[in-house]
Amino acid sequence: MTDHHHTIQAGERTIAVRKDLRVPMRDGVTLAADTYARVDDDTPRPALVALSPYGKELQALALTTPPQRRPSPMWDGCVEAGDIARVVQEGYVHVIGDLRGSGASEGAHIGNYNAGGVPLGRDAYDVIEWVAAQPWCDGNVGMIGISYFGSMQVLAAAERPPSLKAIFVSGGHYDFYETTYHGGIMWLMPRAAREGRGGDSGWAFTDGVKSRMLETYTPEEIRNRVADRLRDPDVAAWPNLVHVLNYPKNHEAWFDIVMNEVDGDWYEERNPITLAPNIDIPVWLQIDQGRGWTMDGTIDLYKALNGPKKLSIGPYPPMQSRPFIEEHDKMFRWYEYWLKGIDNGVMDEPAVTVHVEGSRETVTGTQWPPKNVEHRPLYLRPRRQLSYEPEPMGAKHAAPDGFYQAPLTVTDKVEILSWSTAPFTEPTEMIGQGAAHLFVEIDQPDTNFILRMWDEAPTGKRQLITTAYLKASHRELDTHHTTEGDPHHPHTRAVPVEPGRIAEYILRIYPFAATFLPGHRLVAELSNNEPLADEHNALLPPDAFHLPVGRPVTHKVYRDAAHPSRLVLPFTTVAARYKAE
């Protein structure tokens, strides 16, 4: 395929487009890329590289489609390479490439994020160095794009290509296990991102996508592993998973994820957080509130980086526009400094910037959390109350709360227990991560715990503040890393629950930053499935929910003197009760 040049009109600017450039990889495979640049001169310019398997033609919609916000039905989660016209206007060449096994590129894509195949970071290295050597590039390369494109930036930087001078990552995913299993509970949105369902076009697959599992194990081993996976009632009740396990060649990358339901080497070898100590170039990480697991991963990555770094946490809602246009002002200041050598003062500004929900204030600091935090408990109490005071009575008198959840195959109703504080009398700020200690008895070997924290205004209007997830069989703690208010679970094995026994489950409450204003309440909701439509989920793609529990479960939540069920939360402003002490 030969490349061809033409121009397009974007507003008042004419953009020069080079289509289907062939970029050679070190193993002889060639990848396809398009470039967008100014037509008014031949000056070599810095380049911003965007790489994904979503297809470069899809990314060109940024030139013709106004940015869409959820719940627009025209929002497509895979249009993520950035605002092409603005990139060109700011004096960069925008390079958008198809990863191997996708779009117009050659080669085979093996497994999730190519785990087990050619490392994607290695291909990114070759693309970056090829771009830097072109006559239209001045040798300085950065990267652009959110989500999958953001993860690619980190994988590229870990390979240390000499011409990659800095990266700016918005809305990336990092820990690949946490991308699909939140607290051990399967999240179905990665299926949509790969298959193209429910608001996502999915991967631009070619014939070369292969399952790493099918390549690694014999047919008999695969049969045995599939049969074992189908013994999980949650999996067996979900038609899409029954289908993918029986017909793996339909969706081989998703098959691999479904087959690997616990964490371990399969995920860790390509985990960007594991690779982060190799990165010494400047990195700016940005994430918006309302996406708990990606905020958690963003903060973990930030802590692991060694070079110059910044962290910005933006306001709710969770999903950025598609085509992606947000955060470009920050990005261009960053690249002006690191790619163009203009001292614009960006490195004199605080490293960490956090938007606090509720107060709408900006808090800055040198690390996360940017303020001193004291973890304090809010106890679950009878009559659905949350209180600073623990319950003095035993279970005989402070009888447990409970709910029975039938499988969603036979009901549309998701049962939800909630507990609420009294209205706050003064602004109460929390910044950080937390823990939910729940003493629960169930009558089955497993269930899900899905906890969601809301800020409820006096008018009844609610906004999601943060979430916590834990599959009951994944309750084991990583005692080496767990501290008060900051629990970690290894997720390396599932241990069935003994039905009828009260156990303590400690859920990780994902990082957040919020001030509860006077008159507002903190409401905590617990369920084992989540409602498919509510104030928050309406802002997410249609498939952004978790695998429902496939068996009927009765839950008894104990919150008495012997079973102090509680939320342990990161207070920066100490509640009035404590001020009086």
Automatic annotation (TrEMBL):
<dbReference type="InterPro" id="IPR050585">
    <property type="entry name" value="Xaa-Pro_dipeptidyl-ppase/CocE"/>
</dbReference>
<protein>
    <submittedName>
        <fullName>CocE/NonD family hydrolase</fullName>
    </submittedName>
</protein>
<keyword id="KW-0378">Hydrolase</keyword>
<dbReference type="InterPro" id="IPR029058">
    <property type="entry name" value="AB_hydrolase_fold"/>
</dbReference>
<dbReference type="InterPro" id="IPR013736">
    <property type="entry name" value="Xaa-Pro_dipept_C"/>
</dbReference>
<dbReference type="InterPro" id="IPR000383">
    <property type="entry name" value="Xaa-Pro-like_dom"/>
</dbReference>
<dbReference type="InterPro" id="IPR005674">
    <property type="entry name" value="CocE/Ser_esterase"/>
</dbReference>
<feature type="domain" description="Xaa-Pro dipeptidyl-peptidase C-terminal">
    <location>
        <begin position="332"/>
        <end position="568"/>
    </location>
</feature>
<dbReference type="Pfam" id="PF02129">
    <property type="entry name" value="Peptidase_S15"/>
</dbReference>
<dbReference type="GO" id="GO:0016787">
    <property type="term" value="F:hydrolase activity"/>
</dbReference>
<dbReference type="InterPro" id="IPR008979">
    <property type="entry name" value="Galactose-bd-like_sf"/>
</dbReference>
<dbReference type="Pfam" id="PF08530">
    <property type="entry name" value="PepX_C"/>
</dbReference>
